[in-house]
From TrEMBL:
Record-given protein name: MBL fold metallo-hydrolase
Ranges for domain Metallo-beta-lactamase: 13-218
PANTHER family, sorted: EXODEOXYRIBONUCLEASE WALJ, METALLO-HYDROLASE YYCJ-RELATED
Protein's job: Counteracts the endogenous Pycsar antiviral defense system. Phosphodiesterase that enables metal-dependent hydrolysis of host cyclic nucleotide Pycsar defense signals such as cCMP and cUMP.
InterPro entries referenced in this protein's UniProt entry, alphabetically: Metallo-B-lactamas (IPR001279), RibonucZ/Hydroxyglut_hydro (IPR036866), WalJ/YycJ-like (IPR052533)
Keywords: Hydrolase
Native source organism of the sequence: Paenibacillus albus
Classification via SUPFAM superfamilies: Metallo-hydrolase/oxidoreductase
Domain of life: Bacteria
Amino acid sequence: MGMRFTNLGSGSTGNATIVQCEDKAVLVDAGMSAKRLDELMRMQGVAGHEIDAILVTHEHSDHIKGLGAFARKFNVPIYANEATWGALERHVGQITAEQRVIMETGETVNFGSMRTTSYAISHDAAEPVGYVFEDDNVKLSLATDLGYVSDKVRRMIEDSDVLVLESNHDVNMLRMGRYPWNIKRRILSDVGHLSNEAAGEALCQLMTDRTKRVYLAHLSLDHNMMDLARMTVNEILENNGFFFKREEHPLRETYHDRPTAWDEVRRR
């Protein structure tokens, strides 16, 4: 089988992704209720007891809403750095010592044949991270909830076979939107979220001949639309010399209310 993944949901309504190799499966974040997570997983043919670990990016509720209940129900260990544990423990209820695993930022942990590395990102949380998965010489990178793509982040996620990248908002829609200015300022800041424009500019540095697919993720329901995100990102790529045949276009969608199809991460 190699490595494959499915995004169960993306955005402020809840975030979760399954990454699976031949003999292990991990859940990155658990931002929906445990019941909803179980439903979405079953839609993808995965049962809760098949999850070997939950990896936490940060403690915001749209990433940990169902974390405690799901971990208790299926006796799954939770991996997070110490600062994130300190911020989330009061929100997840009773977790056994065996389920509480410290995975410090920058550490690499193997789940079966998958080599999993966390890396620091810029977001208004205790110690937020993204994750890179490598297996059989292929690379999958997850990068959402980051105010900007730093040089360190770029070095971690560039040259991925498949990349899940935040494209949270259209700047003009956000500026004209209903949010109070303090929230707008937070979203637009270096510890907020990537705009469509920022995602496109980042991809100009991240994409190589190796990159086959890029999933635009964590779109705002109030200040973005998938068609707009794709158009903006694609225009920036084309303006920087990236042109694709229709059948080989790398941009893919994520959804706030349903999973993406399983994606087999393979080299050509």
